[in-house]
Each structure stands twice: as C-alpha cells, then as structure tokens.
Predict the structure.
Amino acid sequence: MKKRTSLTVIAATLATLFAASAPAQTPAKRPNIVILLGDDLGFSDTGAFGSEIKTPNIDALASDGVRFTNFYTHATSSPTRSMLLTGVDNHLNGLGNMDEYTAPNQMGVPGYEGYLSKQVATLPQLLKGAGYHTYMVGKWHLGKAPDLIPAARGFERDFTLLDGAASYWDMTNFTAVAPKSVFTEDGRYLTELPKDYYATKTYTDKLINFIDANRGDGKPFFAYVAHQAPHDPFHLPKEWRNRHVGEYDQGWDAVRQARLKRQIEMGIMPAGTQLSERMWFLPDPTVLAPAARAIQGKKMELYAGMVENLDHHIGRLVQHLKDIGEYENTIFVTFGDNGAEGTDLFKMIAGSPGSRDYLFAATAWSQTHPNAWGDPGSYVGYGPMWAQVSMTPFSQYKGWMAEGGIRNGLIVSGPPVKRAKGSINNGLMHVADIMPTMLELAGASYPEKLDGKTLPPLTGKSWSKVLANQAESPRTEQDYLGWEIFGNHAIRQGEWKIRWQHKSFGKGDWELFNVVKDPAERKDLAASNPDKLKSMLALWDRYAKDNNVILPNRTMFETLEDQLPPRVPDDAGYPPLIYKKQFLPPKDMLAEPKP
C-alpha cells in the first residue's frame, strides 16, 4: 500500500514538474477584418463574376477565398450600410427610408430618423470594446451631427465623406443650399481636403497610415473601407480614362450576352440561364447611329476605368498587408452596396430649367464636353442601359426590388474560410449577417443591453459554419428575407420571391418568381401559384409588423408611370422593318435598263 502511494506521489510530482517546464500555449491570434465596399458596384462588374473589366486584385481575393452568388444587400446605399454596421433591419436602425426621401407620414417615427439610430450598437463599437483598433475611410451617409459621425459610433480613426455622393477631386456638392461636401478626419470636420486629393487614392493612403501608426501593439484591427467608387460622377485620372477605347461601341446587349456566357462557363450562373429583358424604354443599340453608340460607349469606358482604378487601390492595400505580414491573418469581405445606378441622379438633383439648383448645376458642373469627362466640374453617369450590363443577368437596377436592385457578388477570404479556394457557394446570404459573423470570428458577442439601453435582436445570421465548410447556407428553407424602400417591397424564402413595385417598373401589384429557376424574373407565377403567393404574403405581413414598416405616402416615383412610354415586351427582331437589310439580287440577274 505504501509502495503504491509513493509511486502515485512521484508520478504527480513529475507531472507537475513537466507542466511547469512545458511552454505555455499561446492563444490564437484574432484576425484582422477588412470590409471592401464598392458604391454602386454591380454584380457582374468584376472578373470574378464574369466581367471584361480587369480587376486582378479583387479576382485574387476570390481565388484565395469563396464567391457567393445569392448574397443580398438593400436596394440603396444608406439602408445597406446601416444593416452592415448594426446587423439590424433598416426600419429599426434609423434608415427606414433614405434621409433624402423620408415621406411625410414617416417623419418623426422611430426607425425613420434618416441617420443611424442611437438605440442600436455598431460593429466597430463592439469590436473596439473587444480590443480591436477600428478604422474607417470613405463614404458614411449615416448622419452628420457631432454625435452621429464615425468617431461617435465606434471608429477610433477615420477619414470620411459624410454625404451620399460627391466630387472625387474637391468639396463640390450638388445643390445650391448644400454646395459643399462635408468631411471628417479623426472626429474633426475638415475645412479643406489634402493636397493632390483624389478620393479612391486618398482613402487608401489614409487607411495604410492608420494601420501603420498602431503596428506592433499586438491588437488586431477592423477596417471599414467604404469607397465612393464607382458611384457617379465618373471622375478619374487621365491615365485611367482610355483603357477601353471603342470597346463598348458594340452596345449594351452584346456586352451583357458576353458576360452571361462567361458567368455560365465559370459556374456563377447555371446553364440555361436567360438574360432579363432589355428595359422597354431602351433602344436596341444596333439601330443607333455610330456616333450615338460611341458617345454612350464612352460613358461605359469611364465606368470601367473607375472600377479598374478601384481595383488598383484595393491591390495597394492588400500588398501593404502582405509587406507587413498581416495578409494571412486578415479576413476580407468584398461586395457592392446595392444594384448598379441606372437613374439619372444629376437630372434629379438639378431639376427644371430656371430653378435654383439647375443654375447651380450649370455653373458648378459646367464641364460637359466629352473630352472633359472625368475632370473636376464634369458629371457623367452611364444610364439604365449600362446599369443592366453591370447587373447581368438580372432585371432592373438600384432602387428597385428586382434582383438587379438587391443582389450582389460577395467574396470572402481569410483564415476562417475552409472551403476550396476559388469555390462558389449558392447559400442565401444577407448584408445584415456581417455583424454577427464578424463578432463571432473576433471572439466578441452581441449584448442584450448597452449603456443601459436594450438592443434590438439581430436580423442577420452568422456565416461561420458556411465559411468553415460545415454548412451550405446560414438559412433553412423556412427562413426568409424582407425588404422595403420607397414603397417597393419584397420577400424571399427558399427558391421563391414576391415583389411589389410601383408602375411601370412593377405592376402596382404582387408578382411571384422562382428566382432559382428564373433569376432574370421573366415569368410572373402569381396567377398560376395562388397558394404559394398566399403563403408568401403572410410572410410579408409578418415582416412588416415585426419591423415597423410604414409604406410612404410620397415617393420619387409618384409620376414615373406618366414619364415613361407604355411597357411592351422585348422580342428579339421586332419590328422586322428596322432590321431588314438592303435586298441584294443575285449578281447573274443584274442588268442595265434597256433603251
């Protein structure tokens, strides 16, 4: 008995000595997080999603990570950004409508403040509390008062445009009553911009400086890189303007067809996918005169240059992280914030001849000659025809509930991604998922209360199991997603989607689509599937109630039906009259007239 006891004591002593001499296990290093957001960047605008536009740096992130083809944002900028930063539905976080278009019946209602509500927590706020550095560069669009700017909502360092859009060269804004854009740097309002300012370059320079200033302290960082590009106006340095000269003179239909072909070859879209109809008020580009095609093509050339310049500066950031040894420990999340912009924003802003804003636009944005496009003082957008190209193969664009308004290409790469490099996933993802996902991957949590306030429950769902290759989607077939903006609204559950849109883009009534079999939303199934429509309408009622949705009594679309021609089908080759070429008789039957 004594012998056994002695052996036990000796074994315990040796175990203690071994444990004391063994090196302590180092806790896993928490990952850096970089969100790369393109403003109005379309689903198909990068090489990784089928574009002819050269985006090698974004494509490299896709090759090193995973692409998601069923990722949803909101239909416009600030609602998407509000959900990205809070994980909470936009009708509860303050952006129930865009500040610029809050309807009379929404004013003063909680959830419709037009800025990021103080009743919600932000991702940088919680990550900062968990020991992260938090940096932001780019566009905010979520409030301008001192208690609403990035420095007040969790960002330690920032260089930020507070407005929704602006010149890329200077502080010129869009209306006579707000002629100057507002910027902050580290919580202070700027009186002027840095010398040699160009938005995309300067944002990248500032972020690299933020990262370097805190290198070596052992803390991870969260960087929200909210680029303006490629939002109009299309401003870019001269050396980036002529990289696609003449390439787009072939017209929008041919470019869309080529992109879809590549998407099918890459596996982004399934075989047999059709393009959505060319919007009924747009011409077939082949019937345009060569000069008209060239001038419209030049707009797309500028847009392509904007995207390539954006990719270049993303590459600068990625290379810097490689140079300082942080790339391998960084999560990258890359996407566009909504559908591509097909509306003529400049026309909306300037208004009618003789008005105050029309005069301001004519003077502040006076560089209208095509040779000056891209310079300070020029304003170029590319219109609905090219917006449809950016959203290949989907229908419509920004502001609408068709897939072209709310679906975008998502790329995620970095340490948590255990799926095959360069792989493609079709799981149902949402921008509100970013908050819970990044909190989980950072080892942080979402509290029930913060600063004595009860926080709303998260709308989003974590992607951690999907990224780890343990699940194909964060959602079951019973889960659903909901949207509403400007009165347009939609629900998606599984393969099915319902949408209600103002005329003429919609029917002013509910439409039903199977968006897996019909991603271009060509066939409305509402009449032939009344039971499915009924069950989906019940989900809409639930979503509207749970999220305090107030349909607006005024919208920017209230006269749209009167402004557009009647909606007609898009049938190839109709009417035959304008496609019939000159008849050429057989050469052996040609003859001169007889005397």
Remarks:
- The CA atoms of residues 14 and 319 lie 49 Å apart.
- Residues 30-472 form a domain with the Alkaline Phosphatase, subunit A fold (CATH 3.40.720.10).
- The two ends are 139 Å apart (CA to CA).
